[in-house]
Amino acid sequence: MGKKLDTVNSINNLTDPLLKRTFEASRSPLIVTDNLRLDNPIIYSNQAFLDLCGYDLDEVIGRNCRFLQGDDSDEEAVATLREAVEQGTDARVTLKNYRKDGVPFWNDLIMSPIKDDAGKVTHFVGMQLDITDRMEAQQALVAKTEQLEQSNHELEQFTYATSHDLQEPLRMINSYLQLIRKRYGEEFDEDGNTFLDFASEGADRMQALINDLLTLSRLSDDSRRYKKIAMREVVDRSLNNLKLLVEETGTTLTIGRLPTMCVDPVQITQLFQNLINNAIKYRRAGVKPVVDISARKDGGSYIFTVKDNGIGIEPKHFDRVFTIFQRLHTRSEYPGTGIGLTICAKIIKRHNGSIWVESEPGKGSSFMFSMPVERG
Ligand code: ADP
């Protein structure tokens, strides 16, 4: 190949030996095109470029580098390149090119103008980089993400449909249980009434599960519901729903200064409600609950904290509590469905933030979540 290159180089006065060797030694595929000739033909190519596209030197020289493209080129990239050549400016584009054997490769091409002393663009130098592996990985990732989104969507619909459909038979069980109690309750002995209580309890638990599953599957992302709102108002709304629990348990609440943010108010009310409810529910025996709600700015996000003085959580369970149906206690110790924190995590994900917990067993927990100051 050395001989062929010599011929080409001498045609184009590329006689500086160091420059020539530098081009040839470069592992980066390089070409030089002649801007003064019609259609900007390639007048120089190093070996790395020939290795990249699989052509011989004489098959490359004299051709416009578009000969590497197929019918499926990204039109925008081609237009960018054309414009840069017309205007004598730099361009960087990613092109799908084809090797001589027909195998496609992704080419990251940087074209830069070469000017003469008068500032006229006489040539372009094109540096290529084979980014096929990266592009294939990226495309596989996009395809996988689409697949996941699709199956996630289907799963949400499935959860919604099943929980919705379960309500009807449950209603029937409940009304017949009530009827049995009303009509035959007095005829039952103690055991009979206890069994009836168990059946009612089971039905109530199922109702709670269905309600939570419905809430979870209904958490759609609808930007029309987002609005600018004082977070204090959101917290107050959630406390309004927890009024009875707060009073009954003698909970002390402290609320710091909270920002105004653009959020889905219904979802964030639900989030605070779940966190405050847990903060009170998981209290220590004989210790009145103290719940502190605060926010601070951290870079481009606000971090909210719901801190309690309850039973706390062991560090090994910090992640587990956000997983659906994962509970650290039996129902007889603390009632619940194990869905509340999953709902919180989903709401926060919808708001482009994250949620986590810090805690010391026996002292209390701090549930924290972040949300970007500006909704992206
Ligand atoms: P649920 O309260 O219905 O069980 P959650 O998803 O809200 O479901 O919580 C999951 C588990 O995390 C709870 O069962 C409990 O063990 C633990 N947990 C949640 N909040 C607290 C808290 N503030 N203090 C201690 N443990 C908590």
Protein model, in words:
The protein has 376 residues and is an alpha+beta fold. Helix content is 45%, strand content 22%. The chain has helices spanning 2-11, 17-25, 47-53, 57-60, 75-87, 132-184, 190-217, 231-241, 243-249, 265-281, 340-350; strands spanning 30-34, 42-45, 91-98, 104-115, 121-130, 227-230, 252-255, 260-263, 290-298, 301-307, 355-360, 364-372. The strands form three sheets. It has a five-stranded antiparallel β-sheet, sandwiched between helices. The radius of gyration is 34 Å and the shape is elongated. The structure holds adenosine-5'-diphosphate (ADP). Adenosine-5'-diphosphate is lined by residues 274, 278-279, 282, 308, 310-313, 321, 327-329, 336-342, 365.
Present the secondary structure layout.
Elements: H1 2-11, H2 17-25, E1 30-34, E2 42-45, H3 47-53, H4 57-60, H5 75-87, E3 91-98, E4 104-115, E5 121-130, H6 132-184, H7 190-217, E6 227-230, H8 231-241, H9 243-249, E7 252-255, E8 260-263, H10 265-281, E9 290-298, E10 301-307, H11 340-350, E11 355-360, E12 364-372
Parallel strand pairs: 7-9
Antiparallel strand pairs: 1-2, 1-5, 3-4, 4-5, 6-8, 9-10, 10-12, 11-12
Short description:
With 376 residues, the chain is α+β, with helices and mostly antiparallel strands. The chain has helices at 2-11, 17-25, 47-53, 57-60, 75-87, 132-184, 190-217, 231-241, 243-249, 265-281, 340-350, and strands spanning 30-34, 42-45, 91-98, 104-115, 121-130, 227-230, 252-255, 260-263, 290-298, 301-307, 355-360, 364-372.
